[in-house]
Design brief:
Blueprint lengths: L5 E6 L5 H10 L1 E6 L4 E3 L4 E3 L2 H9 L3 E2 L8 H9 L3 E5 L7 H4 L6 E5 L11 H7 L4 E8 L9 E8 L6 H24 L32 H10 L6 E5 L2 E9 L14 E4 L4 E5 L2 E10 L5 E2 H7 L28
Length: about 325
Amino acid sequence: MIHRPRAVFFGTPRFAVASLDALTEVADVVGVVAQPDKPAGRGNVLTPPAVKLRAHELGIPVIQPVKVRDGTLEFWLREREVDVALVVAYGRILPKAVLETPKHGCVNVHGSLLPKFRGAAPIQWSILAMERETGVTLMQMDEGMDTGAMLSTRAVTIGEDETSEQLAMRLSALGAAIVREDLPLYLQGRLSPVPQDNALATMAPMLTKEMSEMDFRDSAQKLHAKVRGLKSWPGTSTHLGARRLIVHESTLREAPALTAGAPGEVVRVDKDVIWVASGDGALGLTELQLEGKKRLRVREFLAGHPIRVGTVLAPPDPNPTIPPDPSEGASR
C-alpha cells in the first residue's frame, strides 16, 4: 500500500484555492489554516475567505488564528503529525517554530520566477515592470521574505493586454500544476533545492492607494502597464476637471502618430477610444468611470460626458493662480 503523506494547507484568497484542490489529490489534507473573516462590500459584512469556503466544501477542518507567534499554531501542527505544510498566499509571515514543525518543513507556491518579485504583490509588479515573462516557483520556506531555496519553476508569457486579474487566474492554475506534479517528487527526495541568487532579487511590495494616480508624462507603455497591473486594486485614475476619472481599461493598439499634444491632452476622440498624449505617444482609454457614477465603455461615456480634443486630463492644481481683483487699488 502506497503511503499518502499527511499535509496541512495555509492559504486565504481565491488564488490559493486551485492549489488546495491539487494538494488533496497528492496528500491527505488534515487541516487548513486561513486568515480570519473580514468585512467586505458596502455593508461591511463579515465574509469568510475563499480558501475557508472551499475547505468546508471538501470537509476539511479550518482554523483562523489571529496570532501565529504565540505557540498555539505550532502546537496545532504538532498534534497533527504532518509530513508537509503547503503555503499559498496565506498573507502572514510564519515564525521559525512553525516552519520547522512539519517533517519536511513548509513549502510555498510563489507567484513569480524567483528571485524576481519577492514580496506581497508579485503578479501586479511583474506587469508594472513590463516583464515579458513570469511564472510560479515551488520553494522551501525560511524566515526571510521569499528567500528560500527553489525546488522547481513554471514559466508563462505575459500577454500585452493581460491584466493582473487575468494573469492571476493563469498562475493559480499553474501553481496547482506544480503542486500536483512536483510536490510528490520533493517529498520523495527527488528534487534538489537550489539557493536563490540574492544579487538578482527584486521586490514586489504591497500596493498603495497613492499609486493609482496616472502621470501622463510617463510613456504610453508604462501607463498601459499601470492600468493593467493595478486593475483589481487600487485601480488607476486621473481627473476630468475637478472630478476623479477612473480608468478601467486602456489600449495601445492603432495609436495615432502624434505631431502635437502635451502630456494628458486629448488628441483624438474615436467612437470607442479616447486618445491621450503621453510622454512618448498616445494611450487609448476604452472604459471609464466618473467617481460615484457607473462604469462605462467609452461610447456610452461620451454620450453623457462629451470630451473634446484639447481637453486636459490632470489633477486639479493645488495652488491655482488667483487673478487680481480689478477693484483692488482703485480710488475710493
